[in-house]
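Before relying on records like the one below, remember that each one covers exactly one chain. Contacts with other chains, cofactors or solvent are not represented anywhere in the record.
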Amino acid sequence: MDINRRKFTTTILGTAAALALPLPALARATGKGKLRIGMISDIHQDVMHDGIKRLGAFLDAMREAKPDFIIQLGDFCKPTATNKPFLDLWNTWDGPRYHVIGNHDMDGGFRREQTAEWYGMPARYYGFDHGGVRFLVLDGNDPGGTRSGYNRFIAEDQKAWLDAELENTHSPVVVMIHQPLDNDWGVVNRDEIRAVLEKDRGPDHAGVAAVFSGHCHQDYVNRIGGIAHVQINSASYIWLPGNARRNVYDEESHKKHPYLNHVAPYRDPLWALVTLDLDAGTVDLQGRATEWVGPDPWERGAPENRYPRDKNRPAISNWQGPILKKS
């Protein structure tokens, strides 16, 4: 079932400008049994001319909001010397910070292990515990499946690791992955992986509460098999078909960043602040909204059947849901 994220259980903010309230305005006290996470996805430093400014704005807001940790959900940057200032900025966060590998993070022929090592990740896929929750970070870039283009697969060794982690974990589990597990743009063998996530492991297992992903540059939540699949929109843009490409920034920026006219950019960066309430068994997502830079995708000629307006929007919508099982 597709949950309309604009039907909030909290106050509905009526305009994009209202939705873009700065995160310092949010309550900062988490209280007992609450865990707060700052999430950002798909900055695409190697496409955008202002990626470092977008990342800086996120970090500034998180320093005000004071989450328990931050995580980026992939398509961050390639492991190159020119991107070291970008990674160095991320590493100024004085607290736990985590990475997910996206498909574009190996562009230019890099191996996943190189990217993981450069980011400082413990492995391509891994787990960690925080605030009574087990977090499992997956790598959706395994070779396999029958689709062309970038790899979108989870191989047997990673699948077996995931199954063992869930069998041995009694705490609530949250999964982080770049490619989603709920639609055709995501992991090719997603049905197999969802079956592992949805498996009934007995009353002493709290189970999987949610899956957070990026990759699609969309804004939505799906609930499948009792698990919320939350799409975190890109911090920067949506990618456009050839007929819809336009120059919307200054000539010099487009000259230095040749893929910049391939996108419909968001004027301000997007991110989410997610609060998991272990006592109440709920999740509260507070997002942001902004405007398009230049004409919107449909004015440019993007087809609505491929770019639905309710999902392809310059926003991460607020959302609340009873998705976190009590342990």
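The domain at 2-321 is CATH 3.60.21.10 (Purple Acid Phosphatase; chain A, domain 2).
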